[in-house]
Amino acid sequence: VSARGVKCAVAAEYRRGGDNAQAAIDAGLLSAADLNGLNDWTDSGLMLKQWDDSSVQCPPPAGSVNGRDRFSLFNEPPRDAGAAAAATWKAYQARCASELAGYQIVGPAVHNGLDWMRDFYSAFFAACPECQEPASPLYVTYIAFHAYATASDTAGVVGSMVWTHDAACTLQAEPWALGRPVLLTEFGAQLNVQDNVDQWLTAMDTIFDPPASVPSVCIEEAYYFAEHGFGGLAYENEFQPSTTTTADSASRVVGKFRSLCFGPDSGSPPP
Hints:
By secondary structure, the chain is an alpha/beta fold. The chain has helices at 20-26, 41-44, 82-95, 97-100, 114-127, 154-173, 198-208, 247-261; strands at 7-11, 47-48, 70-73, 104-110, 142-149, 182-189, 219-225.
């Protein structure tokens, strides 16, 4: 937990590909049993990925994957897909009701701007009033979103991440949000650069230890994006060396995460 009360987490694949999640465990930043510290949905089956496909396999029993008890809905669905995504969730939940028992549900991870996120969630909850009822098996416990800085200068990255804090509070205050906890399930600096990790470290700094210009912190958990570059972009962001992240950069990422998330009031890193 950071000094401003944001729970530090990692968005990375576990036991797959570059395995930055395992690198974080090896560095003592996480434990393998960390309940919700790894966004390892690509391997674990703990996400209903496609907003328009309810036919996928039901999840493993709650708690069977490193003790995790959260199930996530949809990764970056289209802006106009809120109602259709709600229908997909209803159909999937009806088919997989027994397997989903014991899970808390994380709402769709929206992105691409505040109006975009509001439009999607407003339509989603309008089409699924049961998702607002705590007693319903369709109930969504958490609001989720993604945010990346695309500026090449430090001030621009800080500004983007300050906006991210403000956006979290705005979403939480929406009538459909009902004050629910907000999770930033991916964040970072999405830049096509190598040999430059500074903007990623700045993004981490601003989210986990925001400046005084952020009066209220509404992000309950923030997942630093530690995966290998994708879409042709070369990122210096990983917990381990790779074809795009140098050993020095990886060491600085580990050190920054440790210094922000395991301060004197945060306890010690897990063994």
